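Re: [help] complex structure
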Amino acid sequence: MADRVHSSPKRGRLLTRHGTGLALLGLLTLALVLLGPLFLDRFTQNVLTRSMIYAMMAITVDLLWGYTGILTFGQSAFFGAGAYATALILTHVGGGAQNFALALVLSVILPMALAALVGWLSFYHKSTPLYASVISLVVPIVLSQAIFAGGSFTGSSSGLVGYPVMKLGAANYFRLAGVALILFAGLAWIIVRSDAGRVLIAIRDNPLRAAYLGIRTQRVQIILMTVLGGVAGLCGFLYANAGRIVAPEIAGFGFGTQMIVWTALGGRASIFGPALGAIGIDYLGAQLSGSMPYVWQLIIGVLFVVMILFMPRGLAGLLPRRQRTAAAPTLATLPDRPQESSKDALLSVTGLRKAYGNFVVLDGIELEVRPGELISVVGPNGAGKTTFLRCLSDGTETIQGTITLAGQNIAGRPPEDVVALGIGRKFQVASVFESMTVAECLRLARATHERPTLWNRASGIHLPSAALDILALTGLDKKLAEPVSGLSHGMRQSLELAMVVAMLPRLILLDEPTAGLTKAERTLIGEVLKRLTQELGYAAILIEHDLDFVKEISQRIVVLHQGRLVMDGPVEEVVNSELVRSIYSGMAHD
Amino acid sequence: MTDDRLVIEALTSGYGETDILQGATLTLRRGEILALMGRNGMGKTTLLKTVMGLIPTRGGRVSLDGVPINGKPPAWLLAQGVGYAPQELPLFQDLSIRDNLRLALRGDRDLATALKIVERNFPFLLERLDQLAGTLSGGEQKMLILSRALMTEPDILLIDEISEGIQPSVVQRIETALKAEREQRGVSILVVEQNLGFALGVADRWAVMKLGQIVDEGACDAASRETVLKHLSI
Amino acid sequence: MKQMKSMRFGLLLASALATTPAFAQGDATPITIGVPVGLSGANSVVAPAVVQATELAVDQINAAGGILGRPVKIAVADDASGAAGAQTAYNTLVFQDDVDVVITMETSAARNAGIPIVEEGEKPFIYSSFYEGRSCSPNMFVNGWVPEQQVPPVVEKLLADGAKNFFLIGSDYAFGRGMLEFSRKYIEEKGGKIVGEEYLPMDGSDWTAILSNLRSAGADAVITSTAGGTPNVTLTKQLRASGISIPYANLAVDEGTAKAMGADAAGILISASYLTAIDTPENKDFMAALQKKFGAEMRTPNDLSTPQYEAVYLYKAAVEKAGSTKTEDVLAALPQVSFKGPRGEVSMSKQHHAPLTMYLGEVQADGSVKVVADFPNVDPGEQCPDL
Amino acid sequence: MALLLDIATTAALLFIVSAGLFVIFGVLKIINFAHAAWLTIGAYTTVVATKMGLSPWLSLPLAVLVGGLLGAVTEIAIVRPLYRRSLDAILATWGLGVVIVQVITLTFGRDMQMPPALITGTVDVLGLPYSSYRLFLLVAAVIMALAFVLVLERTRLGLNAQAVIMNETLARALGINTSRVRLVTFMLGSAIAALAGVLLTPLSSVDPTMGISWLIGAFMLVMVSGTSVTALALACLCFGAAQVLVSTWISPILGSVTVAVLCAVMLRLHPKGFARG
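Output below.
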C-alpha cells in the first residue's frame, strides 16, 4: 500500500528570485539590528527589545490563527509559563550558568507540556473552532489565578523582581531579541511556504477534506500548538531576562488579546504583518499612551473593529497581493501497481442501521465489495445514500451493525484513520482547497505517502497514472500553477477525483461525481472509473442518479429505497426489474 | 388579462459554482394543475426554490401575472398569495402541529380561521394540535405540510414531492384535496413529482425537466404515461 | 532621537512660571521629577490626587526659589497600573526624559518593573505608596507605611474592645496576603485567635461563600485587606447586606471610598498615616493650598497622595543637604533628612523606610472619618536589613 | 441551610448574568464578547438615572431601553456583516467592548460610582438572617426564566426565534423575516444584559471594567447550554453549586475558576453539554 518513492523528486530551490530579495532584506535587517545600539538611544533600545519579543509572539499567533484558523487568546499563558519558569528558577535556585541552562530548558519544556494539554483539550474529532477559542480564554485566566495564589513563591500580584539575569547589557539584549526575531520570522516564512505550510492552510480552509486526505488534522493542530507553546516559552525566557521582572499580567488574557490586535492590524497570514504590527503598536503606544492612555486604547479599539469588518487582511492587505509566479511543478508517474484481485471482500457491511432519534435513515444494510468491483448505488432522494457513504468512511458515526474494511472494523475510527485503511472519498460538492493552486491540492493528496517537507516545496509530484489521466483529459495538467478558485465546476470535480485517486485508496467512494457536468466530462469520468476498477483492481462505490451513466460503467447495482437495500445484482437484471421501474415511477410502497 | 399566471423564462440559478437550472422555461396557467417531472438532481426543487426567492436568480426572469418577481423575498411572495410546500426538512420536528401551522400565518390572519381550512381536508390534524410534528407518521407529516400551505388560501401553490415515500391511500387523499382546492377556489398548482401515477392522475398538464431545462411538456391523457416514462426511465 | 523627543506628547508640566521669582543665576536647568503613575488601570482612581499633590509641592518649591536655585518640573507617564506599562513609563522617564529622580505611588508590580530600570539608569527613586513591605533596592526609599505600622493600631483597638476570635478576608494578591499574614502573626502574638482566613481573586466580586464561612466561624471581629476599589466595595456591600454586624476593620479602604459607600461604610475601623481630619497646622495649610490651586477640580488628598507631596519635599531636602542632584550624593543624604508635613515629621531613616505616626479612624454615618487615636513614631520594623 | 441559599442565589446570579449572552448565542450562534460592556452600560444607566433623581427601580426599564437601542445599532453596524465569519464576530464584538469601556471611562471617569441599592437589609429565612437582595435576585432569576419560557412558547416572536434556531431555511420559506428576528434577538439579548447590569449594582461597585469579571463564567455556561433555557438553568444550578461548595469547603480562589474549568472539561468529554440531542 505504502508507495514509498525511491528516487526522491527534485526539490525546488528554496531561494527563488523573490526569495533572494527577501533573504537580502533579512540580511539588511540583521545588520540593522546588530548595529542598532550604535545609533539608537537607550530608551529606543529598551522599548524595541520588548517590542521585538512581542513581535515573535505575534508571529506565533499568526501561525495559529492566520494560517491554521485557530483563534487563540491564550498564547500569553505559554509566554507567562516560560517567563515564570525562568524567574522562579533564578529566584529560588539562584544564578550561575547551570541554572540559566536549566531555566532555558524548563522555559521551553513547561509551556510545551501545557500547550500539549491545551491542545488535547481543544482539538478532537468534531471539536469546533469556537470551542478551541473559548478554551484558549480559560487557560490564561487559570494560569494567572495560580500565579496570584502562589504567594511569595510566585510573587503574587507584585511579580518577581531582583533575580539574577544574564548580564548582557541593554545593547546585547537588543541584538539578541533582534536576531531571535529575524531567525524566527525567517523560519516561519520558510515553513508557511513549504509543503508542510500548505497542510496548515488546508486545515484552515477545509478541515474535512484534509481529514479525508488522511491528514491527521487534530494531531497537526496539537503539535503546532505545542511547538509554538515552546517558542512562546522561549520568548518568555528572553523577556524575563531582558525585562528583569515577571508579573501576572504577562500570563493573562488581556495580553493574549493584545497579540490578536497586533496580528489583526498588521495582517493575519502574512508573518511580517503581525511582527510589524506588534512592533509598531507597542512602540507607538510607548510614545503616545503615556499621556492619553484612554484615547490611545479607544483609537486602537475602533481601528480594530473597522479592520475586522472591512479589512480582514489588515494593513498587509493594503499591499498588492503578489501573484504567486511559482513555476508549475513537474508531474511524475508512479508505477501502476495493480491491486491483487482477491476473492476476499474488501468491504463488508453487516446489519447496518443508522437513526437520528426516531428517524431511521438506514436499516438492515448488508453489502460486500471485492477488489475490482464498481458498485453503483441508486435510489430516490432521501433513500439514505449519502448517509451510507458517510457511515462507510467515518467510524465515529453512531451506528448499529459492523463495517469492516480490509479485515478491520472501522468502528470508532475517525475519517483519517479510515482513510489509512484504504478509503478515498469524493464529496458531492467538489471539496478542494480554495486558496491553493491545482498543484498544491494534488501534493496535499499525496501528503500521507510523501511526508511534506518543512523547508521547501517539492518541485515534482508523483501521481498514479490514473490521476495523471484525469488531469490530462481535463486539461488540468496545463493549469497546475493556477488557483483553484478560478476553476470551473467540472474542473473542480475532476481535480477532487484526481486528488482522491492520488491517495491510492483501495476503495473509492464517489457521491454523484457527475452532477452538473457536461456530457463530455461525464464520459471522461466514466472512462477513468472503468480503468481504475477493471484494469487496476480498485474497488469503487458510486452514488449516481444518471442511470444511463450507471449502465455504462457498473458491473453491479445496489438499490436503496427508504433506508433499505432492496436490490443488489448485475446491471441488466436490476435495471430491467419491475421493482426499480416502480420505484422510479413512484409505485413502490412498503 | 391572460390566463398565464406564473411565467418562468430562461431561468438560471444554482449553488456555489454550479448552475443547476440552465435556462428553464415554464408557464403555470390559471386554475390548472401542472406536474413537473424528472429524475433526481435535474433541478426541479431548485426551480421551486428560485421562484420562491430562496435562491438568487442568475439569469432569466420570473413573473407573476405579468409583474417581474425576480429577487423578491419569500415573505413578499407569500403575501401575494403564492403558497409553497417544500420537500427538504419541511417541518419543525420539535414543535407542535399548532406551532408549525402558526408559523405560516402572516399579519392579521388568526389561527382559528386558518384551522377551519385545515379541517376541510385533513380534520385529524385538529384533534392532535399539541402533538409534536416529529412524532407524526410520514404520510401525516405530508398532510400537515400541505395543510400549512393551503391554510393561507393561496392563489398559486408550489408543491415539492408531496407524494414521496407515502402509502397510496394518503396519496389518494392528497390528490382529492388538491383537486378540491382547484375546483372550489381556482388555485393554480405546480406539483413537482417523481410519482408518475399520482402526477398524471392529479394534473392537467405535465412537463419534464432534464439537466436544468424543460425538455418536453404536454397535456395529461392516455398516452402521456408512456411518453413521460420514456423520459424518466432507464 | 532628539526628534523623537520633540514628537512625544509626554506631559511635561512646566511649573507655573508666572509666580516664579528670579532663580539663582548659576545653573538654571530645571530639575525634573519623573512621576510614572497609573493614569489608566486599577490605580487610575487615585492617580489624579497623586499628580495634584506633586504639582502642588513643585509649585510651592518653585515659588520659594526652587531647589539649589534651580526650577523644578514634572514629567508624568502612565504605567497602566501594571508591569508592562511601567516598563514603558520608566524607560521613557529614565532614558528619554532623563529625569533627576523618580517619585511616585504605584502598584507593587509596576514598582518592581521600575526598580531594574531605575537601577540601570542610576536614578534615585522615592516610593510614596504604602505597601506589603520588604521591597529593597539601594536606589529606592519608601515613605509610606508597611504592615508593621498599619496593623497594630486596629488590632489593639479590637482587642481592647473585647474581640477574641478574628476572621481575615483578603484579595488574593501580594498586598492582601502580606497584610493579613502580618495581622495573623500579630493577633496570635497578642493572644487573639484566628478562626478563618479567606481570599478571593482580585477580580472576584462574589463574596457569598466567604461570608457564609464568616458567619458560621463564630468570629467576633473581621479584618479585611482587599485590593482597593471594586473588591473593597463589593465586599463591604455584601457584608452589610448579609446582616453581619461584628466589628469590622478594613486595612484597604481610603476616605474617599468610605465616603462614596455611605451608610454601608459606617462603623468601619481604618488605620492610616494620613486622614483629612488630622488637626495640625501643616495639614490645614496643605488642604487650603490644594483647594486654592485646584478649586472644584481638587481631589481629596489621601494616604497615597499626601506621602507623594511629602516625598517631593524630602527629595528637596536631600538635594540641598547633598548640594547636588548627583544620584550617589542624594541617596546618601535621603536617610538623613526629614520633613514636617501634613502627616507630621517624616524621615526615611530606617532601612530606607520611615517611622510614621499612625492614626486610627472610624467611619461615621455620613461617611466622614473621625480620628479615634494616634500612635506616634511607629517603627517599620526590619524591612531591608541589608541596606 | 445557608449553603442551600447560597447555592440557589449564586445560581440565580449566574443565570441573570448569562441570560443576555444566551439569547444571542442561542439564536445567532455567535458569542457576543461585548457582553461585559452591556452589563456595564446597564449599571451606568442606574448611575445616570439616580443622579437625575429617579428611583433606582426606574433604571430597570431604562436599562432595557438603552441596551435594546445600542443592541440594534450594534447588530446592524457590526454583527450583521459577520454572521458567516463567526470567529471574526467574536473579535469585532470584543473590539466593540473595548471601545465602549473607553468611552465610558472618558465620559464618567475611572472612579467607582455608587448608586443607591434597590433593596437593603436582611430577612429571616428559618431563623437565619439572609440578604434580602440576594433573595430578590433569586425571585428575579425565576421570573426571568419563566418569562423566557413564556416568550419562547407563547409569543409569536419566541416562536419565530425557535423557528430560526431549528431550521432557518424553512423559516425563510414560510415568510419569516429572519434578519428582523436576528435584529430583535440581538436587541433583546443586549437589553437583558443591560438589565442584568442594573441588578448587579447593589452587589458590586460600578466602574468601567466591572463587567469583565462576569464574562468568562457566562461564556462557559452558555457554551454548555446550547439553545435550551432548561439546560441553562440546570447548568447555572450545577456549576453554581460546584462554585459555592468549592469556595466554602476548599478555597474561594479555586471556586472562582470552578465554573470555567468544569465547563471546559465537560465540553471536552461530552461536547453537547447540557443541551439535549
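The radius of gyration of chain B is 17 Å.
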